[in-house]
Recover the amino acids of this structure.
């Protein structure tokens, strides 16, 4: 067998290995993987799995490239293959960056294994902010190192980018202020993911906090994106940060209602509200407030233990129905605006 044939056979073997080596290794190492997974921490196992796909592609490309180099090409083709080595190095860097990209959430969990149990939303907000920031750094550094490996004068580009960056900075002051405001929001965390906030004319549930903007889902399911600089400039009302919510309402009774009926109604209404498990019984105040033009007004003020917007609306609906049933049981009616007209007859 001639040396040339041996080279072709070796190249064919390497190409087959590039295609079938990874699936074969997965099947062979599956029992070993089960044994090792029982002996190492779960987070370490997750971290290793983040690099499996990049490593598999690296093995495939490496074997395929080795096969190409094994074939006895002409001198011109071998020169071309040799010049392709920097691109292979850039590919290795890209695979490493891919693995780090996938591993960033796991690294965050390893750094914060015991988040504060009373603030899970803050932990999720910081986690997403950490992931976005670290992934941005990974992409920028990988691109710079890759360009440098390909012979691009990165130092000159960075020096030239200083002048260009100054111009961009002047033209993108709002974007930079948004970035700084985003860091401020994460550091002070006036709200977290899942909180219901009121921000100027916008209110809804916070769905995402990025470096530049905050996304809010309104009650009618519209997704609004607000720049972080505008978020910091507004008064922020966080409904989830309060433990209770004030509810005040007025019930108008007809003027034909007697004083005894009003007193009995106030007693029964107070008893009804105090007995509700989601109402702070000590805060319930039901009083005869005023005699309005068309009604006897009973004013109610109380604190409810449902700070969430959805739970608050459900509580209002349930108690309003209970008040209607109570008035029906006591033979009372709601007053509505009315006017009495008297017709005077002239005597002839």
């Amino acid at each position: 067998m001639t040396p040339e044939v041996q080279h072709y056979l070796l190249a064919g073997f390497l190409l087959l290995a590039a295609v079938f080596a990874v699936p074969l290794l997965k099947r062979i190492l599956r029992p070993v993987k089960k044994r090792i997974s029982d002996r190492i921490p779960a987070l370490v196992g997750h971290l290793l799995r983040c690099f499996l796909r990049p490593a598999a592609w690296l093995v495939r490309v490496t074997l395929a490239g080795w096969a190409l180099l094994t074939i006895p090409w002409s001198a011109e083709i071998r020169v071309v293959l040799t010049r392709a080595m920097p691109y292979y190095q850039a590919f290795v860097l890209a695979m490493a960056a891919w693995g780090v990209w996938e591993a960033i959430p796991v690294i965050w969990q390893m750094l914060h294994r015991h988040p504060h149990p009373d603030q899970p939303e803050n932990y999720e907000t910081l986690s997403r902010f950490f992931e976005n920031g670290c992934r941005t750094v990974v992409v920028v550094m990988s691109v710079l190192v890759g360009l440098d490996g390909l012979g691009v004068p990165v130092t000159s580009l960075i020096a030239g980018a200083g002048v260009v960056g100054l111009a961009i900075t002047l033209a993108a002051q709002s974007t930079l202020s948004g970035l700084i405001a985003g860091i401020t929001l994460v550091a002070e965390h006036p709200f977290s993911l899942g909180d219901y906030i009121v921000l100027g004319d916008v209110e809804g549930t916070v769905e995402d906090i990025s470096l530049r903007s905050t996304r809010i889902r309104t009650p009618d399911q519209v997704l609004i994106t607000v720049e972080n600089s505008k978020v910091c400039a507004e008064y922020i009302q966080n409904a989830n940060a309060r433990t209770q919510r004030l509810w005040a309402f007025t019930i108008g009774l007809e003027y034909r209602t007697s004083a005894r009926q009003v007193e009995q109604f106030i007693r029964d209404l107070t008893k009804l509200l105090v007995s509700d498990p989601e109402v702070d019984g000590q805060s319930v105040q039901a009083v005869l407030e005023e005699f309005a033009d068309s009604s006897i007004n009973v004013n109610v003020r109380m604190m409810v233990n449902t700070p969430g917007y959805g739970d608050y609306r459900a509580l209002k609906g349930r108690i309003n129905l209970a008040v209607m049933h109570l008035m029906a049981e006591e033979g009372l009616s709601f007053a509505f605006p009315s006017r009495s007209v008297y017709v005077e007859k002239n005597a002839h």
About this structure: The first strand starts at residue 196 and ends at 199.
